Structures are given as C-alpha cells and as structure tokens.
Amino acid sequence: xxxxxxxxxxxxxxxxxxxxxxxxxxxxxxxxxxxxxxxxxxxxxxxxxxxxxxxxxxxxxxxxxxxxxxxxxxxxxxxxxxxxxxxxxxxxxxxxxxxxxxxxxxxxxxxxxxxxxxxxxxxxxxxxxxxxxxxxxxxxxxxxxxxxxxxxxxxxxxxxxxxxxxxxxxxxxxxxxxxxxxxxxxxxxxxxxxxxxxxxxxxxxxxxxxxxxxxxxxxxxxxxxxxxxxxxxxxxxxxxxxxxxxxxxxxxxxxxxxxxxxxxxxxxxxxxxxxxxxxxxxxxxxxxxxxxxxxxxxxxxxxxxxxxxxxxxxxxxxxxxxxxxxxxxxxxxxxxxxxxxxxxxxxxxxxxx
Length: 353
Prior knowledge:
This protein is α/β, with parallel strands linked by helices. It has helices at about 15-20, 40-45, 60-70, 90-100, 175-195, 200-210, 215-225, 235-250, 255-260, 265-270, 270-285, 290-300, 310-325, 330-335, 340-350, and strands at about 5-10, 30-35, 50-55, 75-80, 85-90, 105-115, 120-135, 135-140, 145-150, 160-170.
C-alpha cells in the first residue's frame, strides 16, 4: 500500500486538535504536527497522537509553514489536514489506489464547512486540494495558500476526487474568535495585494473574511472589486464570489441593485445555490412569480454547495410565497417538506394554531 504522511500546522488549537488527530490515528498513516507558536495545550495534546510534533517560528506566511511541515514527512505522498477539521468518512484502499494511479495529480477531498445562519447550523460543501506528491507539488501564497507544481513547464496541473470527507468547524466559533481570525486574514491578504494588486482571488478572499464577521459593507466592496476583473465563470471561487456578492447586497437592503445579476444569469445558472439566490432577489423585489420559478429550478438542480439549497431552503420560500398569496394549505404543504428546518417549524406552528 502507498505510504501516506498527514501534515498539519496548528496554533492555539487545544479545543480542536484532539478531535482532529484521534480519528486519524486509527489508520496506518504518519502524522506530523507543526506548531507555529501555541501558548495553550495544543502541543501537549498533539503529542498523544502524532508521530512528530515540531516547532516552527511563525513568519506571516502560511505556505512557508506548510512547506516546512511536508518537508519533515517520511513519505512523499502528503495528505494535508487543518487542525479544525476532522475525518468523518474515508475509503483508504480506494484513496491509496487513486493516488498511485495519479502520481503527478492532486487529490480533492470533500469538506463540510459548518456555520451559523438563521439560528441554525448550516453547511457549505466544497472540494479542496489536499493529497499530492511533494516531488511534484508544494505550496504558494502567504495566506489561503494553494498547491502548485514545482515544475509547471514539465507537468500539467490536474486533479481527481478522493473518497475522503472532512468536517470543518472553523467558521462556527465565538464572535470574538471569528473576528480575530478574520482580521488576521485581512491583514495578510492586504499585504498580498501590495505585490499582486490585480488578483481577483485575493479580493474574493478578503470579501470572504469580511463576510465571516457579517461586515456586509466591506464584503460587498471586495466581492465587487474581484468581479470587476475578467474572471472565469466556471471557477468555483468565482461562483462563490457572485453568490456572496448577491447576499451581501440583500443584507444591505440593496435588492434592486442585486437584480443586476440578471446580466450574468446564463454564466452562473449552474447550481441550486445561484437559483436560490436569484429567487430571494426576485422575492425581495416583489417579483413573486419569477421568484417561484427560481426556487422550483433550485429544487430540481443536483449541484448544490450549501446543504438545503436544493431542498428545504427553496421549499420554505415557496411556502412563504403561497402564504403571502393567501393559500395557507399550499404553504403548509411546502413548509412540511422542510423537515426540521427551524423557520419552517415556526411557520407550521403559527399557521396551524
């Protein structure tokens, strides 16, 4: 079997590190933890599970820390995991076979990102580049670092999906911890803009950081800057940026301005997330039939990043439209399709009482 080294960087993660490492220890993988300056019990807890716990002096460069960690591994095949992620599902044999068959490509794992929305635990699912051979790849970028070819002139960057799922809790901490993380990220991203001022991905990430702390004004500003460039609509981060921009406009009560996304409809009408967004934009503008059409499209769309964007979220809004039009029976039918979605349960109780 192909030997794999798991590489993790961590700082002050005593509340997460055991949840991260314990599920990994079950498998025959080498575990490397690089501590970048913890002042809590992160290092002590990591020592119970990791094969190596090493120190690295933080230099405001995530790629440098990542590259140091993979350099300390005993094996060339690297699986990178963050300290606020933990393994929920994996087919080890299939993953190792895929890695053996694709030695010069990068494996994408599925990550379930948890965050609070409307008082409930919400989940956004994305694919992230994490399994690769260090002979061909390393990290670049001081923040939101990305896996890049060491010799791009000799090899082609290609990806494949691996049967591994992680649960990510990094967006569901306290407001104070989220703000601290966001401001750290923004500081590094702005530093990155000084040398790469025309990178739309950096503007997107700054928008994401402001979005994390519900600063819709700045989120809208930076998403807008990113979208002002000639970006590829097929790129996942661009699709996320359009959706983030639309929601930021709605949160700022700029629903009429959000209608401008009609102009890019054909390019982005590929996911339930976008259909749901457009439905909400039409709903806020009083265009109920257009909204209804978008929510119906969302229900029939297989591609969905936000859990519920092709099920209970459009069903709830279809129920809301029917309620607004006076059809209580139809509204209740759609609310009941939402399962245990709290807002739908409240509506059912309200209408049945």
